[in-house]
């Protein structure tokens, strides 16, 4: 092989490596995912359980937007401040629209420009565009003043896509900084056991080399996929254990009031429940609700939710 051919092969290998990394980069991944993230939470009974269980806790712990509006009306305060909610990493706006439909003023930020544009479109389609502001932003560097929001949401796993421990600590500190004292903060992340089950169920032949390192520290990275699998996968992410998740939140200054397993026994049962009759699905839904605050349920879930307060 000539020196020129060797250099060309090396350049090709570097380009291929860069392409694999880009495919696993969260920003590019969600740019290419399109409406998939909006559709994900209504795609099957299990993903609907994730959404329903999350909104149950939002409804229970959020300040009441309607009550504040009614109080302002009684006091003839036409310019009374609405309840301000940050939806950090809000993607296509499924939660932002739900909140806006209930009277909250929502600011959505997401790293993906494509998801931000979709969020604007979805808010307009649902008639809540005046209550939803969507802009590109990074949870590690929120461009808002201290104490800017009455409540903060970071739902569906955005913090899991911040794989570096120090950067994730910075992101958690940012969520705390922009929330008023005493505000509720809702954070959901991807569970480590669910990541391992995905490898076992869908890509075992090509990705079994990832099992031990992901089990050990929860990090699913482009570098590992390139070295230990076939170079293809989903967006880089960190899978949490329940104790670890709670520990990181407390280190950031949050008081964790609830830790919830959003899918628990129904995790990774999408196909089975999609084929089940309505009565059977409802039985599963009831059991998931029954068990969702069991600590083991959090570790078993695809997503675990922490309901926190700012100290």
TrEMBL record:
One of its GO terms (molecular function) is methyltransferase activity. Pfam families: Methyltransf_25 (PF13649). Keywords: Coiled coil, Methyltransferase, S-adenosyl-L-methionine, Transferase. The keyword S-adenosyl-L-methionine applies. Residues 1-14 have a biased composition (Acidic residues). Residues 85-182 form the Methyltransferase domain. SUPFAM superfamilies: S-adenosyl-L-methionine-dependent methyltransferases. Residues 1-36 are annotated as: Disordered. The keyword Methyltransferase applies. Residues 15-36 have a biased composition (Basic and acidic residues). Residues 259-286 form a coiled coil. GO terms for biological process: methylation. This is Class I SAM-dependent methyltransferase. It comes from Halorussus gelatinilyticus.
């Amino acid at each position: 092989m000539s020196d020129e051919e060797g250099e060309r092969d090396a350049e090709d290998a570097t380009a291929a490596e860069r392409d694999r990394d880009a495919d696993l980069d969260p920003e590019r991944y969600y740019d290419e995912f399109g409406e998939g993230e909006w559709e994900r939470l209504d795609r099957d009974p299990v993903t609907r359980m994730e959404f329903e269980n999350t909104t149950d806790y939002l409804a229970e712990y959020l300040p009441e937007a309607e009550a504040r509006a009614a109080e302002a009306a009684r006091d003839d305060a036409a310019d009374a401040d609405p309840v301000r909610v940050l939806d950090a990493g809000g993607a296509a706006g499924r939660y932002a629209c739900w909140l806006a439909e209930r009277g909250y003023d929502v600011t959505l930020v997401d790293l993906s420009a494509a998801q931000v544009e979709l969020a604007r479109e979805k808010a307009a389609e649902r008639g809540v565009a005046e209550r939803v502001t969507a802009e590109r932003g990074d949870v590690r560097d929120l461009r808002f003043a201290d104490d800017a929001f009455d409540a903060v949401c970071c739902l569906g796993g955005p913090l899991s896509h911040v794989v570096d421990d120090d950067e994730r600590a910075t992101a958690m500190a940012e969520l705390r900084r922009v929330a008023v004292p005493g505000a509720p903060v809702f954070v959901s992340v991807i569970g480590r056991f669910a990541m391992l089950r995905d490898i076992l169920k869908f890509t075992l032949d090509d990705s079994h080399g990832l099992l031990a390192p992901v089990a050990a520290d929860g990090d699913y990275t482009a570098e590992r996929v390139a070295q230990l699998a076939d170079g293809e996968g989903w967006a880089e992410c960190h899978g949490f254990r329940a104790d670890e998740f709670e520990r990181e939140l407390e280190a950031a200054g949050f008081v964790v009031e609830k830790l919830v397993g959003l899918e628990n026994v129904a995790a990774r049962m999408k196909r089975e429940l999609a084929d089940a009759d309505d009565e059977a699905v409802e039985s599963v839904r009831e059991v998931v609700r029954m068990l969702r605050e069991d600590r083991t349920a959090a570790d078993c879930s695809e997503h675990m939710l922490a309901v926190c307060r700012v100290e």
